[in-house]
From TrEMBL:
It is a multi-pass membrane protein. This is Heme exporter protein B. GO terms for molecular function: heme transmembrane transporter activity. The chain crosses the membrane at residues 12-33, 53-70, 91-117, 129-152, 159-181, 187-211.
Length: 216
């Protein structure tokens, strides 16, 4: 079995162990589903506030999973094994990001549909919202890989991690909210696809470089 497959399966199992992957999903659903109850039935207000809310909730849900992504590997010695592995560290980092997207990003994408319905999004826009969330969560994770690697050796580095990655989360949030509100959908989806591809390509490379520096 390839190093990618081994790492992917291990990370997926660790994320679901003890229901750990359910916490960010529960946060996302709670944040998006409770707002209509708090704001009342005003459709105009919900349509205006809904798209940014969905994206902010998705970004914070992903952010909550990043702090321990490489920190646990550093503490239990798994990072040393990764560095000694014949497989490129970039490939192992990519496998960890892919597992995180399957365990967290994909469920948030699927949960985005009922969340959008609760926030009075038009039915014909739901497919676009799901597609944008799939791309946006991939972009979040790509950026997050680098931030998680940089802060892996920092105790309680959650604040530092947030300071590093949240500014880089802004483009997917802006263009994702644009898709959800029905403004310039094709152009916004194209930019989101670019963000996702850029994150998938550059995130593992930056993460591997940061991890090698910390191992020296």
């Amino acid at each position: 079995m390839s190093a990618f497959a081994v790492t992917f399966r291990r990370e997926l199992a660790l994320m679901w162990a003890g229901g750990g992957a359910l916490a960010p999903l529960g946060y996302f659903l709670g944040a998006t589903m409770l707002v209509p109850l708090a704001m009342g039935p005003d459709r105009t207000l919900l349509e205006a506030a809904g798209p940014p809310l969905v994206w902010i909730a998705a970004a914070l849900s992903i952010l909550a999973t990043l702090e321990r992504l490489f920190q646990a590997d550093l503490e239990d010695g798994s990072l040393d094994q990764m560095l000694l592995s014949p497989a490129p560290l970039e490939l192992i980092s990519f496998a960890k990001g892919a597992a995180l997207w399957v365990a967290i990003g994909l469920p948030i994408t699927l949960a985005g549909v009922p969340a959008a319905i609760a926030l009075q999004a038009p039915v014909e826009r739901l497919g676009y919202i799901a597609a944008s969330l799939a791309l946006g969560t991939a972009a979040f994770i790509g950026v997050g890989l680098a931030g998680a690697a940089v802060t892996a050796s920092v105790k309680r580095g959650g604040v530092l991690l947030a300071l590093i990655v949240l500014p880089l989360f802004a483009p997917p949030i802006i263009f994702g909210a644009s898709v959800a509100s029905g403004e310039e959908v094709s152009a916004a989806l194209s930019i989101l696809a670019g963000c996702a591809l850029g994150g998938a390509a550059l995130g593992p490379i930056a993460a591997a470089a940061a991890l090698r520096l910390q191992a020296e």
